[in-house]
Amino acid sequence: MIDRAALDEHVAGYAEILLSAGATGRRLTRDELESRKEHGQRAAEAGLALRGLIRLHLAVARETLSELPQGRGVALLASVEQAVDAFAEGYERSQQHAVRREEAARREFIDDLLYGRSDLGRLAERAVRFGLSLSQAHAVAVATGPEPYGDGYPVARGIETAVLSRFAGRQILLTTKDGRLICVAPGDQPEVLAYFAKQAYAATDGGRVAIGRSHLGAGGVVHSYEEALNALDLADRMELDEPVLHAADLLVYPVLTRDRQAMADLVESMLGPLRKGRGGAQLFIDTLAAYFDSGCVATEAARRLSLSVRALTYRLERIHSLTGADPADPRTRYTLQTAVIGARLLGWPGQEE
Length: 353
Prior knowledge:
353 residues, alpha+beta, Arc Repressor Mutant, subunit A, 3 domains, 15 helices, 6 strands
């Protein structure tokens, strides 16, 4: 049953409009339509359900029919149609504005969360509204694909539906940023990010996912997010082919480049002589990378490079003669391998060849 006491203010003036328009069969005026839109907007802002409001409009129309001259039912229906349509337009317009405001607030929160641009105490308060408790540790996963993704894209919606259905009730935030798919989850629930990675890999047709380490507090989310981004960058520079990367497994690379000048000196000292070889330094660096990545197994390295074992062996011997370091000798292998890693991280030799 309609609670008329709570809803009557939203049909104020409606009966009078029906009586006036229904008696003559005229269309509603601009002012009458605008008044109904305003009532619809206020009803939406009050959080009232549209279904009950429509029933109330129909109830008022039935009551009004008895006050009109006989035979004016068709004219009354025409007036009701115009009035209800205007009311619903105002209601929907208010809802759309509310959705846009909510989207803007969510986007602002996500930007502040991932970049740490807001007061941490205030950020923690806002996080509750979006289902996060920043007093605990969180980890962040970032997924990339062959194209940029935004909130509302089919790929993003599909992943969000799958993750939230699988882990209903968990404190999880799924969003997008700079064309990437992002999942923020409690640090003690690695299964959430693992499932997100699986869904993202499938939905992006073989994209790549990086997972940052778990860190405490609002600043921890930023830290984990940056670790994931750095892992993706490292994967590109190091030509890693793993679909899912864990920042914890890549910590050695930032350590190696912490003193960039020392690393640059090592690279130049060890690999600089390779410029004298036929094909340039990059050819030999690629050869060494394939050799080390295959566990120093010549047949596997040759397969990766589409070479014969004899051709690979010749290149390794040439590297030995140019650098003085034997890739097959454990005593010099580590230094040479470190130099190759450094060359990848520094983008050496780049365009200089």
